[in-house]
Design a protein that fits this description.
single chain, two-stranded parallel ribbon, 26% strand, extended
Length: 174
């Protein structure tokens, strides 16, 4: 345990994912806490909810954060732009900043003295929003799953000319 307090929310409206419900719940919790940073995973859910949460909190929003450093003016965050060709350094100018963090951007927390952090579970009610998720349905695919394949073979530029593709087919038939 790192001894860091954790806040969690419980609501019946969490049964199905809905970005508006998540934004509302996060806004309720964060408005009370008034944190300097709200860290959200850089995932499809995080991309859905972070910008709207920014507006509700009157905060800055920096997405796809890959790193950060401390400067004399505050914390500066790094994110890739233009498909990773450039790195943008951004320093928020607001009291609160919503961040979406790239997976693995920070090493795991170092163990502390072993005392667990406090876990605070807040039961909340989310009033009806402007949309409601009714169901989440799996997409049926006629493609074979990789897990069902006897062999998976990939070829890159090292294969050379297209005429060498027969090597890939031979390997796949082994």
């Amino acid at each position: 345990a790192t001894g860091i307090p954790v806040w969690a929310a419980s609501a019946k409206e969490f049964k199905f994912y809905n970005a508006e419900v998540y934004k509302h719940a996060l806004h309720l919790l964060m408005a009370a806490l008034q944190p300097a940073y709200v860290c959200i995973a850089n995932s499809s859910c995080g991309s859905d909810s972070a910008p709207g949460l920014e507006v509700r909190l009157q905060a800055a929003c920096i997405t796809q954060v890959q790193g950060f450093r401390s400067t004399s003016d505050g914390v500066c965050f790094t994110r890739a732009i233009l498909g990773g060709k450039l790195h943008l350094e951004v320093r928020p100018l607001t009291k609160t900043t919503v961040l979406t963090l790239q997976p693995g951007m920070m090493p795991p927390a170092v163990e502390s003295d072993g005392s667990p952090g406090e876990v605070v579970l807040k039961k909340i009610h989310v009033p009806p929003q402007s949309s409601k998720t009714l169901a989440i349905n799996a997409v049926r695919s006629d493609d074979l799953a990789l897990a069902d394949a006897k062999a998976v073979v990939s070829a890159g530029r090292g294969i050379g000319d297209e005429t060498n593709m027969y090597l890939v087919y031979q390997l796949a038939d082994c």
